[in-house]
Amino acid sequence: MPIVVPFETLTDLFINLSKKYSGQNKAVFHHKLDPNGSFEPVYWDQVYDDVQSLAAYLLDKGVEHGDRVGILSENRYEWAVVDLALQLIGAINVSLYTILPPSQCEYILTDSDTKIFFVSTGIQLKKAVEVFDNCKDLTEIIAFDMPKVEKLIEHDSVKLFDDVMTEGNTLIPKYEKQIHQRSVKVKPDDISTLIYTSGTTGQPKGAMLTHHNICSNVKAATDHIYWDDKDRSLSFLPLCHSFERTAGYYAIISSGAEIYFAESVDTVSKNMPEVKPTVMISVPRLFEKMYNLIVKSVEEGSEAKKAIFNWSVEVGRKYSEGKRGLVSLQKKVADKLVFDKLKQRTGEHVRLFVSGGAALPPDIDTFFKCAGLPILQGYGLTETSPVMAANKPGQEVTGVVGTVISGVTVGIQSLDNGKIIAEISGEDYPINTTSEPGEILCKGPNVMKGYWKNEQATKEMIDDDGWLHTGDVGRFVDGYLQITDRIKHMIVNAGGKNIYPGPIEDMFKTSKWIDQLVVVGEAQNFMAALIVPDFDALKKHAREENISFDSIEDLLEKSEIQTLYKKEMREFSKQLASHEKIRDFRLLPNEFTVETGEITPTLKVKRKVIAEKYGDIIADIFKNDKN
Question: How far apart are CA 105 and CA 70, in angstroms?
């Protein structure tokens, strides 16, 4: 077992790790204080002192056991200090995505009755100040950075983090005994955090995750996917996301491994060669971007370059299937010609890519495996803390999300009669169960306590038998869990055929011309798509082909561009069943973003919003079919 200390709560985890590494100059976090500088280590002794200082300050401000404290910040050292201080004194972490507008921040702060609000930059501080008067329980805002707009810091409620830490340090003698008493009082069934689901429909709901929920998941996931104190991880997924919180934060430190905080999501490609991570926790979007960059480079090259690339991928495929002999020699050549360049971009030390949060397109999964960089795809929900199943190192299977983790039971419920048609727990393996598709259910210590102040939503999610209903459709294939799509995403065409858009959309994401794509066609005779092109690729193509245009809108209307996408649709649709083929499409001049409301902070498509926002365009696609 790679877990280095015993723990039943996150409070235990922090205290026992601090004791284990006391006086050893053992780093736990690394961050950049200067964008032009290098990553600086933060040792366990400093973390312990900082957490004690902040805990003393919070107690002095009247934060009680079970009180909610908010954090609106990018991944950074201060985020970890706040979180660990909250776990130490039994308060509840309410984390918010930095891309949320003020109105959403206000809703979450009000719904959770948050008392103190930590924010990072001036941009986030501005939101906090704007909503402060509308949040009745909010007493104080603490800013990590000095804002450029001085009037923000002049607000009566605002304090700077550095000042708070200085004050807290002087309060340690007064509160040291009370901090210890509060830490002993924390029990496994206490709520550790409220994680608000981003919600593709309606207002977000606060999933109540207990210390036991998270700790059980940390232990099971770490046992399933091994890492230890020799590993280092580059953290860039938001820490308010349950995947990064459990797998990329608590699980990493529980193993004695070290976390490097990326400067931002946009600097990941720059930070990877600097950090040389051995473990990367990511969502498919990172792998899609890396893959598309390589494919674009190849397609823009000579015929010889294309031939070398295709040969290398085929060699990599044979090698990943266990073929050796001559293939081993060929793989060394393929690495030098193609794959080493990809590995250099990752820092050349990655031994584990772990992907979650959304489906990983099979073509991309296969390519990375051929390159000698296998991706371990996993599956879970915020409400399951989050991991339910994952592939194991050396046992990766493309197109599935792996085997059920220890302590967890996954069931498949028939969509026709509601009966459980298959059920596997993490202790059942080896098992080769194969089932028909149905709704994926979950039982186990990882299942949330419920939704904050929302008993009705809790009852809709967790039935009387204790099964959590995921809303996802899937099945078991030889004991491996395979995801089809969300139940509510299913499209029923005019002929009554059920079509799941997710796998179709994932397939099209491998096109170098497509950035985003949404399948439409409810109650229609054929499927169509709304396409957000890869604008950089398209503009470059226009320049090379001497296609003049005045604007993106003008470019998308050009007959040459329309022909290009028609050809792409036909080519990709060859892999689809007749009723799934994309028969028509529209090119959109703007990408789907969180700010414009089409996607959630976790990059999931809000299909209802898109259907409403682009209703006229969708109607236009099918109008001739109606006539």
Answer: 10
Question: Which amino acid, 255?
Answer: S
Total-model pTM: 0.86
- Could you give the angle at which helices 102-112 and 122-131 cross, rounded to 10 degrees? 60
Helix ranges (H only) for 132-160 are 150-153
Helix axes 303-320, 362-370, angle to 10 degrees: 90
In 3D, which of 161, 123, 112, 168 has the Cα closest to residue 141?
Answer: 161
Using CA atoms, how far apart are residues 374 and 459, in angstroms rounded to an integer? Answer: 39
Amino acid identity, position 79: W
- Quote the number of domains for the chain: 3
Q: Is the domain of 508 the same as that of 607?
A: yes
- Dist. CA 447–CA 411, nearest whole Å: 14
Instruction: Find where tokens 């790790």 sit.
Output: 17
* Domain shared by 596 and 475, yes or no: no
- What pLDDT is stored for residue 340 in this prediction? 93
DSSP summary character for residue 219 = H
Query: 340: buried, middle or exposed (CB in 10 Å: 19+, 13-18, 0-12)?
Result: middle
Instruction: Please check whether residue 61 lies inside any domain of the structure.
Output: yes
**pLDDT of residue 589 exceeding 80:** yes
Q: Omega before 430 cis (within 30°)?
A: yes
Same domain, 305 and 453: yes
CA distance 439 to 577: 23
What's the CA gap between 567 and 586, in Å, rounded?
14
- Over the stretch 139-162, which tens digit does the pLDDT of each residue have? 999 999 999 887 888 889 999 999
**CATH number for the domain including 61?**
3.40.50.12780
Which one, of 376, 12, 68, lies nearest residue 225 by Cα? 376
Q: How far apart are CA 204 and CA 452, in angstroms?
A: 11
Instruction: Taking each helix axis as running N to C, give the angle between helix 77-89 and helix 161-185, from 0 to 180 degrees, rounded to the nearest 10.
Output: 30
For 22, residues 6+ apart whose C-beta sits below 8 A from its C-beta are 44, 45, 48
Angle of helix 77-89 relative to helix 44-60, nearest 10 degrees, comes to 60
Full domain range(s) for residue 505 = 490-626
